[in-house]
Amino acid sequence: MNSKNIKQKIKIMVCLSFIMFLLFSTTSWATGPRVTPSMFVDDLMQVYAVDFPPYVSNDLDSGGLNVEIVDSVFKRAGIDVPHNILPVTNMVKYYLLEENALACHANQMYFSEQESAKLIFIPIAVATEKLYYLKSAHQNGLPWTGQIASLKDYTYGAYREESINVFVEAGVNVNTGSARSLLKRLESQQADFIKMPELAINWLLNNLYTELKDDVIAVEKSESTVPLYIVFNTQHPEGKSIAEKFKSGLDENIKQGDYLAILRKYIPEVEQQQIYMDQLNGYRSAEL
Amino acid sequence: MAKPFVMLVMFVFCLYVSAAFAGNYKVIKPESVGLSTERLERLTNLIDEHVEEKKIAGSVILIARQGKIAYFKETGLADTGKPMKKDTIFRIVSMTKPITSTAIMLLYEEGKLLLSDPMSKYIPEFKNQRVIEMLPNGSSSEYKLVPVEREVTIHDMLTHQSGILYMASTGWFPNPKREQVISFYREAGITDGFCRPDESIGDMVKRLAKLPLYTQPGEAWEYSLSLDVLGYLVEVISSMPFDEFVQTQIFDPLKMTDSHFYIPEDKLSRLAADWETDWNGKLTRVNGPLISGDLALCPDNAYETEGKYLSGGASVLSTAYDYSRFAQMFLNQGELDGVRLLSRKTVELMTATNHIGDHYADLLHSEGWKFGLGFAIQQDRSKGVDSGDVGVYEWAGYYSTRFSVNPKEETVTIFLSQTSPFDAHFNMWDKVISLSTTAIID
Predict the structure, then answer these.
(1) Deepest in the core among A53, B64, B277, B409, taking most CB within 10 A?
(2) How much is the ipTM here?
């Protein structure tokens, strides 16, 4: 057998194999897969979050302020990590702590010391919180003096997982609920006052509770700011390394103005943006 | 001389017609369709006794045979100082479910869906669902969430085998696993649809789809919010609001002119009140919601003339006559008054008894009843079944409403009352169906 014959035979074999492959693949996929590809999405390589508009929400095409910030940082770092927004805080904690998912947004979530030891907290946003009450229920306002004790015997509408000891010790009654349901608690007078980020309450009043818009009043001098964190899980195989990349990416996004471009969509006032960025940088420095 | 005579005949004829068709309802002599007037009187006596003893405020019962109404009786009060009428409008609650199932089957007949389709094909939130499994005491978590072994299908939803629950089921069958799933429902703001929340059904379904299932799909028969989910599926596939689809595709063709998701203002006076009974002579008109554990009933919601929430499991208001037309369509194998709504083959599919394998639909009935695509179907007489025949299909509603279709005897029985709580009524309902069945004398 000469080399020409061998080459011809190889050619024929390759052609046959190719035809067999085509035939085989057509028959086996003729009806299409019965299981959707998404069944195989990696549940752990995700950022979990609980619904908290306008920071995190399926109701917003962008996913919300915090989702946009995180997505843009991941994009800069060249990492593909989708968000999974759930309606229940405990499910988010379950995926993070029991299944060791990569990360979560820590809004409305409270972790024990033992849990926190396994987590890397990175401040990504700032919320200006105020106390709110219903004018129709409290015509003369609330007797707020700056001390929680001044609201003794009133009922506070708290987030489900919030640490409430300080309120209980001050003699304040507590009724818990999710961010969306706290306004309902006010409306049904199951709560006299709630604490909520200004951005969140404005979004809820403009989009879901328009009938309450003129009735919900902020308590004077009750303003405080809190950082909103993304939490990376050190128990995830890539948790630590992705957290590091995320920190660098966030630094870069802030420097390059990507962060501000996102913030403008949610806080259009230039002066407010400046205050916000100063506060964020303060929290970021404190973390360092 | 002839003219006055003709006019007299016409006048008498008109009187006759207006009497026989009072309220457009033609009621024939029971004997003409093989039913006994005397035996039907037993049914009248049964309800009269219940009203006299203040167990219920009132009811409307309609029995049709061979497509003709042979018994149509209103008894007691519809509301304080307001007598029950044949055209009184009732909250039929879970009797909405067969209507929703029919809507799905209409889309099935148009080739818009397959019963074997995964829900995620139309509602992406159903992808990657998890199922709860409780862990032993001392574990780091009380539960774990395991992936579904297969995706939930439209068939699972129609037959209550989706693994979704009703929140009220914590009161019916309490156990820690159910309690854990319902605690997620509570936090996610899920409602059973008996109170109408200020949101769209799609908002609720998208949240529900992200919550853990109680069982693997197909693993158990669990009466549930699945029909609410299917109401939203109708919206997704048809691109129409669910109430508009039902109105144009079911209520209009069947001339169910008094069936609505939200009552028109001019019909408010015809809506029956709900009554709370202790089954021992204490009967009180319900004002405001009835809350018991996770069961929340808001009968006052029925007075709302508009709103967003369109529950495929609970929202419809209807009359005995309207619902008898819906049931008669099924008895006629999908057709009524020359209008074909469903194919005979679809009705056969919906009323087949082998949809839920070895499970029984043992919520409304005992064992011996299977579940088709919208209602329970009698399958086995060895399990303590009281009435009807094998092949009878029926369902009921939370405010004490029930319907029963007997294909063999060609009967439709509709019982509508508005009384809470639900549990006390099984005995009376079963007697209504028994007396309706035993009135057959041919």
Answers:
(1) B64
(2) 0.83
- Determine contact, residues B178/B214, Cβ cutoff 8 Å: yes
Structure tokens at B87: 């055209």
Q: Check A58 against B206: CB less than 8 A apart.
A: yes
Rounded Cα gap, residues A90 and A114, in angstroms:
17
The pLDDT tens digits of the residues spanning B112-164 come to 999 999 999 999 999 999 999 999 999 989 999 999 999 999 999 999 999 99
What residues in B contact A41, CB-CB < 8 Å?
Answer: 127-128
CB-nearest to A87 from B121, B183, B188 is B188
Q: Best interface-test mutation with B: which of A39, A42, A52 has the largest number of B CBs within 10 A?
A: A39
For residues A210, A213, A216, A217, the Cα torsion angle rounded to the nearest 10 degrees is 160
CB contact under 8 A, B210 and A35: no
Helical (H) or strand (E) element with B433: helix B426-437
Q: What's phi and psi for A128, nearest 5 deg?
A: -95, 110
> pTM to 2 decimals?
0.87
CA separation for the pair B369, B385 (Å, rounded)? 8
Q: Which of A34, A35, A36, A190 to mutate to test the interface with B (most CBs of B within 10 A)?
A: A36
Q: Residue A274: how many CB atoms within 10 A of its CB? A: 11
pLDDT tens per residue across span A183-211: 888 988 999 999 999 999 999 999 989 99
